Amino acid sequence: MRISDSDLCMRIACNDKGAFEMLYERYWEEVFRYAVRIIGNDEEALDVVQDVYIGLWEQRKKIKEIRAIKGYLLQMAKYKSIDLLRITLKRSDFRQTYLETEASHQVDTPYDIKVAKDLALFIEQCLDQMPPKTKEVFQLSRYAQLSHKAIAEQLHISEGTVKKQIFYALRICRYRLNRSRFWNGMLFVCFFLSYW
Above 50 in pLDDT, residue 68? Predict the structure, then answer.
């Protein structure tokens, strides 16, 4: 028997993680497709989905006040997608300036080398926390730079599964990043700058 959205929301308001996962499974693909239509990029749309559901969980005590949760999730996705587009425009300006500056500095400093080593260690630790299939998908996406379609064909899985595995991998990285003593959000941004 299907549990109604309102019942799930009541349970989520009482910190029921199982109900939250059910709500996630019910609507994540619609939220994802909606974000893709706005942003035009699957990976950034997955980030939006993650942000939407994290925001929902953080505001779960107020969830009882929401009458139509699906509409609410799509509205959150809309605003977060628009915010992401604004940030991306600013980053592209920053990245262009950064690349122009870097072009004039070809020598890596000892600090640059240490940061690169620390980053490699951090990424390796994140990979160690991932289930084997998630790790494989993430490595094919980030290191081999394969498209979702190419990964799906190579591993004989659906593109939806690929997207979901990348979403989980990024969530693991963010979780570790947020709990790290010396890393900050800028490092995470720098890691993904090379994949724009």
Answer: yes
Express each pLDDT in 127-175 by its tens digit: 888 888 988 998 888 878 888 899 999 999 998 899 888 888 888 877 7
Indicate the helix (H) or strand (E) that contains 140: helix 132-142
Contact by Cβ (8 Å): 148, 164: no
Q: What is the span of the domain harbouring residue 79? A: 5-85
What is the rounded distance in angstroms from the CA atom of residue 196 to the CA atom of residue 191? 10
Q: Is position 149 within any domain?
A: yes
User: For residue 158, what is the domain's CATH number?
Assistant: 1.10.10.10
Written as one string, the DSSP assignment of 11-69 is: HHHTT-HHHHHHHHHHHHHHHHHHHHHHH--HHHHHHHHHHHHHHHHHTGGGGGG-S-H
155-167 burial by CB neighbour count: b if 16+ within 10 A, else e? Answer: beeeeeebbbbbb
Domain-embedded: residue 98: no
Entry pTM: 0.49
The pLDDT of 13-28, averaged and rounded, is 92
